[in-house]
């Protein structure tokens, strides 16, 4: 597979050779997403922000062979509804499995309680409910403060393509 553009908005989105970005689920939520939502400095400016609904998974910036991370804002599916839009021009992301609850290592925000959520999605080509399942997976991370989603509605997504080998 060929490498994709590694710049978004003039910013480098790849680490130098020899460096790896392999955060745990808890680090993504409580180190990166928390800082993004609370407008605090990020530990590293490696996760770009972009509207995921404008990109099919194979068109996202970055190396197709690597797991890629993005900040994105939740976009309402319906004007007056609370459901999130996860459709693209070629298909849609469908939830699979159960959501995983994440706990912070320690809460240094005083009386604010934090909890993280991780949901897994699979990309389907075509329109629901007749789409064809693909090998593209997305892990969506959300942060709840005092058991409520913050007004900023930021979330982090980790997208990767599952490579299958058959004889």
Topology:
Layout: E1 7-8, E2 11-12, H1 25-37, E3 68-73, E4 91-102, E5 114-125, E6 132-145, E7 154-161
Antiparallel strand pairs: 1-2, 3-7, 4-5, 5-6, 6-7
InterPro entries: NAC-dom, NAC_dom_sf
Region (Disordered): 81-109
Protein name: NAC domain-containing protein
Kindly summarize this structure in a few lines.
The protein is mainly beta and 167 residues long. The protein has one helix at 25-37, and strands at residues 7-8, 11-12, 68-73, 91-102, 114-125, 132-145, 154-161. It has one domain (7-14, 22-161): NAC domain (Metal Binding Protein, Guanine Nucleotide Exchange Factor, Chain A, Beta Complex), CATH 2.170.150.80.
Give an account of the 3D structure:
It holds the Pfam family NAM. InterPro entries: NAC-dom, NAC_dom_sf. The protein is mainly beta and 167 residues long. It has one domain (7-14, 22-161): NAC domain (Metal Binding Protein, Guanine Nucleotide Exchange Factor, Chain A). Helix content is 8%, strand content 34%. The protein has one helix and seven strands, in the order ββαβββββ. It has one helix at 25-37, and strands spanning 7-8, 11-12, 68-73, 91-102, 114-125, 132-145, 154-161. A five-stranded antiparallel sheet has the order 3-7-6-5-4. It has a two-stranded antiparallel sheet with strand order 1-2. Strand 5 (114-125) and strand 6 (132-145) form a beta hairpin. The chain is globular and about 45 Å long.
């Amino acid at each position: 597979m060929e490498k994709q553009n590694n710049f978004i908005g003039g910013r480098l989105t790849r680490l130098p050779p020899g460096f790896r970005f392999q955060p745990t689920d808890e680090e993504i939520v409580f180190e990166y997403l928390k800082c993004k939502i609370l407008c605090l400095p990020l530990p590293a400016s490696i996760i770009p922000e972009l509207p995921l609904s404008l990109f099919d998974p194979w068109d996202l910036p970055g190396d197709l062979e690597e797991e890629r991370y993005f900040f994105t804002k939740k976009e309402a599916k319906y004007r007056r509804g609370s459901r999130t839009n996860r459709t693209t021009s070629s298909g849609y992301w469908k939830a699979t499995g159960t959501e995983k609850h994440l706990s912070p290592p320690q809460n240094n925000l005083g009386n604010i309680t934090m909890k993280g959520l991780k949901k897994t999605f699979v990309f389907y080509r075509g329109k629901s409910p007749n789409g064809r399942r693909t090998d593209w997976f997305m892990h969506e991370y959300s942060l709840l403060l005092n058991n409520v989603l913050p007004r900023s509605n930021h979330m982090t997504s980790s997208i990767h393509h599952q490579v299958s080998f058959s004889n």
